[in-house]
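just leaving the lab so this will be short. what follows is a protein written twice so to speak, once as letters and once as structure tokens for the fold. can you read through it and tell me how you think this chain folds. anything you notice is useful, everything is just below:
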Amino acid sequence: MTLHIYLSGEIHTDWREQIIEGAKGLDVTFNSPVTDHAASDDCGVSILGDEPDKFWHDNKGAKINAIRTRKGIADADIVVVRFGDQYKQWNAAFDAGYAAALGKSLIILHGAEHQHPLKEVDAAALAVAEQPHQVVEILRYVLQGSLPA
């Protein structure tokens, strides 16, 4: 069985690469939003034209990014959402809610310091991990039924 995994959330650390590297040899595919921050922020005005008002600049970009995000989440068997330390990732919370509404298997990834503010998001998840290697072990268990050595 191949699992299609959507990796959503913060873009300032290498957590995606850690999961992808750790999952080598497992029957998985990965997809994610555009992680180039400037490209993600400016895709709307770069494609559709400048906006003098920052609201409409962001609005254009958010809508174009949503095309990719909605498709990625819809096609996923498992959605992993990472909440990092540096910023409040409102988009990650939205992705988690969207995935939950679609009935997707949801794994939330964050440090202990976010336990309280993310309690409702965590409650919608089937697993809450603190480290990327734990996500890999979840995938290994789901696919192979094997526990960590």
